[in-house]
């Protein structure tokens, strides 16, 4: 399929890097920190109990689903309170979490493909997560990063896609949103009037009965190849 793409909005977690190793590292690092700085909290909330507490806090505050940082702080605050720990440990504990959260290992294809894509069109990160591209060291590839917390609503809400398009200065139908999640990324972008690209690394089966992604690739290299081919086609067509 060939259509004009003047800008790209790009998901981060499970698109540029896998999140599961990050989540596992966060749990280990936080538990080790609690063992050293708040042993009663570590005893009351070992890894599985802290995970259950986090899920409980998330369920109790659906209005904060766009703000994962605040939900994490609420979880840590509850853990400290229920274990009788010093509440002043909240911010140091959060910083330990956030440092681990931003230790990412990109998929093997991601960085080279991202460089190629960013050389073709402006790229903006649009994410429900709380990764920080500055801390990770990838911000140079992006025009900006728009997070759900900053925006006030999370994907698949149309408003976050529209806000990104407005900042890019490109009409919705000429922006390609790229992500791994069927509902949050592909369906959300399509319903917001953007083009959609599904990065389907795990060979998932498409489930939506009516909507389909405009593009589907197994990695970002294939998207970079498609952009190169499309650009060449458009250039040849313009010269004809």
Automatic annotation (TrEMBL):
Entry-linked Pfam families: Hydrolase (PF00702)
**One MF term in the entry's GO annotations:** hydrolase activity
**Is Hydrolase among the key words of this record?**
yes
Give the InterPro entries listed for this entry.
Answer: HAD-like_sf, HAD-SF_hydro_IA, HAD_sf, S-2-haloacid_dehalogenase
Instruction: List keywords of the entry alphabetically.
Output: Hydrolase
Q: Cite the PANTHER family for this sequence.
A: HALOACID DEHALOGENASE, TYPE II (AFU_ORTHOLOGUE AFUA_2G07750)-RELATED, HYDROLASE, HALOACID DELAHOGENASE-RELATED
What protein is this chain from? Hydrolase of the HAD superfamily
Q: Which organism is it from?
A: Pseudoxanthomonas sacheonensis
Q: What phylogenetic lineage does the species belong to?
A: Bacteria, Pseudomonadati, Pseudomonadota, Gammaproteobacteria, Lysobacterales
